[in-house]
Queue: 3 jobs
Job 1
Amino acid sequence: MGKDSKIEWTHHTFNPWWGCTRVSPGCEHCYAERMAKWRGHDVWGPKAERRELSANHWKEPIAWNAAAARNGTRARVFCASMADVFEDRRDLDARREQLWGIIESTPHLDWLLLTKRPQNVASLAPWTDNWPRNVWLGATAEDQQRLDERLPALTSLAARVLFLSCEPLLGPVDLSRWVEGAKRGDNRAIDWLIAGGESGPKARPMHPEWLCSLRDQSVSAAIRFYFKQWGEWRPSASGPVKGHASQVLYRASGEPFTIVRLGKKKAGRLLQGRTWDEFPDPNYDV
């Protein structure tokens, strides 16, 4: 992980450490936990030590920033794919302080800080009402309960870009309370929404109506929409596919349809015949 990330919506990934603790249903089949264990690192759970990275690893964003400056472009950095920057542990404070300094010294990089713990951001981030303009702050909301629990904290923060990651999408999500609240000035608006299904050996299917609803709500509210992937499962217009597991799901109308486990690569990321690759506008003065 690092330069040229395989995650579709970012250019690079950067981890200040490895390790985390599960907090909600979206964590149940966590790919990062699975990868850490596969590589022999016992870094998951409230009592486990977190894995620290090398000094050379911390130099990588400086090189990415220099390359972006030379090219006259901006690069997105997802932080952190193997951890949660806002996990509230005092043994991580020194690394967090180091991270804040890196973010401030790399103005040609847009840092995407995605958390399942937005309630901790105000006490752990140093910027209060004066956030660096190259920080995009996001929260994961895999279902309605997590959206309603996490959006009050997220929308109270002053990062320039606020975003949601509804991946893995495990249930229907209604944004209307927050969209209408933003119109009234009760809360900040969400600028960007990422949606996607679950991948991995125990992946749960994503109902296509949940996904289409999020797409339609985003378009209606002028929220930039990015569809990352179907995950392991996707709908099949022709029914079951030989050699692949399948399930029958039902539309809101009661009509049955078949969803097939094709694997992440074959399932792809087309939604009703097209890709959705929208981003907030990165062009601004820093």
Job 2
Amino acid sequence: MSQKQEPDDELWLRLRTGDEQAFLTLYRRRQGALHRFALHMSGSAGVAEDITQEVFLALLREECAYDPERGTLSGYLFGIARKLVLRHLERTRSDVTLENGEHSGGAGKAPTSAVDLLADLTQREKIQALRRAVAALPSRYREVVVLCDLEEVDYAVAAAAIGCPIGTVRSRLHRARALLLEKLNHERQPRAAVNALRPIRSWI
């Protein structure tokens, strides 16, 4: 019979009294999602690893500002990771992709279904195409997609991590999904053209 999972806030209180096991439990529970978030946002496994470690080091510091009355620990940790990612992006000036996508002429058109767009791709190609599309989003859209769609955190946690109203998360996510579908559609069209030109194999 499995034991009930101890809530994050209880682990947090134990951690603040020096309980090493509480820290390890929190680390195992949350580091995977934080690492994936940092990886999708930065595009670098090394940077993601460094950011994940820094998030948990911040949790151990005396000046750690987490307050259970103001939100969840998960949202707080994602918020630290987000700040570190943005700091990295500003330093490296790597966040220069698709800002003009917001002003594309096709904004008034309803996006084609993602299922239809990906129906002719293999599973590996789907994943690679999605990763490229997510990586090409501006950071404010990329972060909501990673948090809400890939990590499946609720809107309240995402809003706390980003530091904006829930309505802003919803609107950014709506726009981000439209941009993703547009990007995937562009990727599918050249592939279809190439396949049409490919010669039929001879039986010889």
Job 3
Amino acid sequence: MTNLTRRTWALAAAGTLAGAIGFARHARAQKQRLRLLLNTSLSGPVAFFLLAQDRGYLRDEGLDVAFDAGPGAAAMVPMVRDGAYEAGYGDISALIQRIARSAPGTGPVAVYTTFNVTPFTIAVPANSPVRTPKDLEGRRIVGHAGDAALLTFDLYARATGIDAAKVRVDGSMGGMGQAVVDMLRGGGADGVFGFVNTIIASAAPLGVDGRKDLRFLNWADHLPDMYGNTLFVTRGLLQREPQAVAGMVRAVNRGLADTVQDPQAAIASLLRHAPGSDRAVNLTRLQGTLASEMAHPEGARIGIGDMDDARLARLIAQIVEVKKLPRTPGVREVFDRSLLPPLAQRVRSLAR
């Protein structure tokens, strides 16, 4: 090889190496952008997402995630689709219904389920004559039209033997806190649909002590197979960018683990993103979520994020039957656990 040839080859090799380094730097700089729709406004129960962002866990995975507030855990589910939101955080019962109404293998898929206990409830006054679910017959219960508890009242009625036709379900509620106050004063409904911790937090600024002034008829007491909120993605995103989805799951899991260790840090992240938020109220909501919605005993066995296949299969079958859905999707079509972090990295300390 002549000196000129050697020099040409060396220059070419150096150029190739420099180009490769430059390409790698460019690839790192070009983060995968995702839009994630939350179930509700920025608040304590979703603060672990914000902590994951603030501590750089999403950035470490090459992701640039924008979080938007949603209209409710069930109402937001149809809004997650390619071309809009690639990911969402909402109610898995609503997700199952959407999947069952979609062609096989085309609907969204859950990838990380945080609520292993359903939070759905009906709040009644502590001194109310409504002591059991059957006592709801002949009563008026209010909630938002898209409230997940209202939308699954038929499942609750079936499980408890209520004649749903004898219950007046009113979906025209205004503010939740005011609805609770009106109920306690005797000028409103007989019960209010919602999440336990959301009802308590909404009514607290209006002088209501939810733990003393209210009693709760909880779905979890009669529908033990129900789960709650889950992180889910479009089928298209999972097929196109499985590594991005896996990275998002890892980052969110790290944010949740940090939140369990230090809830105040998560609330500090919330206040950075939503400066007008009430620290005390949101800390109470977050701590209530950790202590209730993430406290199923199975969490000690499989960790937060995963779901029990047999339990999920029973839930799917129950929803399909009660809602009279066109088909019964399989467990793997609803939930893909392949992207979960190892069990040792999942939260297992919240189980009661």
